[in-house]
Amino acid sequence: MLVILQLADVAEGFIELLFQVLGSLDQALKGSCMRWHKPPNSYLKCNIDAAIFSDSLSTGLGCIVRDSNGAFVASRMDKLAGLPTIKECEALALLEAVKWMLSLGLKNVVFEYDAKLVIDAIRSKAVDQSEFGSIILSC
Questions:
Q1: With the C-alpha atoms ordered 63, 56, 2, 136, is the resulting torsion angle positive or negative?
Q2: How many angstroms separate the CA atoms of 79 and 62, rounded?
Q3: How far apart are CA 124 and CA 47, in angstroms?
Q4: Closest alpha carbon to 110 in 44, 38, 34, 63
């Protein structure tokens, strides 16, 4: 069973943990031409990532929201106790980001994500009765 521990305010410790979670994305971008692209006017963009910390038996989920000018709007970090599979972890990150945007009443949101496996599963019409499939269905 996963327990979600929501971190409170944005603080220095939060920023450090966010960089840890997003560190995998940083490593992937080194030497690449990838860069942030702004969303259409009147939209927000929510960038999402996840990481597994085997040493502490936990998972980190993070997202940052910016407006169409690239200005910071909000960020969030969740820490889950337990070690789901990497694809479950990536799917949970998207699910939590979508639920957060809905809880804030935000509807014009573009989600940007680097987990091709999750994106392909969402686009697929195939039925997946695994835990991963259940998470995808909830997205």
A1: positive
A2: 9
A3: 22
A4: 44
| 34-63 core/surface letters (b: 16 or more CB in 10 A; e: else) | eeeeebeeeebbbbbbbbbeeeeebbbbbb
The label of the residue with tokens 């999402």 reads 48
| Residue 51: HSE in the Cβ half-sphere, 13 Å Cα cutoff | 18
SS (H, E, C) 70-88: CCEEEEEEEEEECCCCHHH
What tokens were used for 47?
Answer: 């960038």
CA 24 to chain centre: 12
- Residue predicted with more confidence, 85 or 101: 101
Q: Quote the CA–CA distance of 40 and 67 in Å, as a whole number.
A: 9
pLDDT in tens, 35-58: 778 899 999 999 999 988 888 898
Instruction: Give yes or no for a contact between 84 and 118, defined as CB atoms under 8 angstroms apart.
Output: no
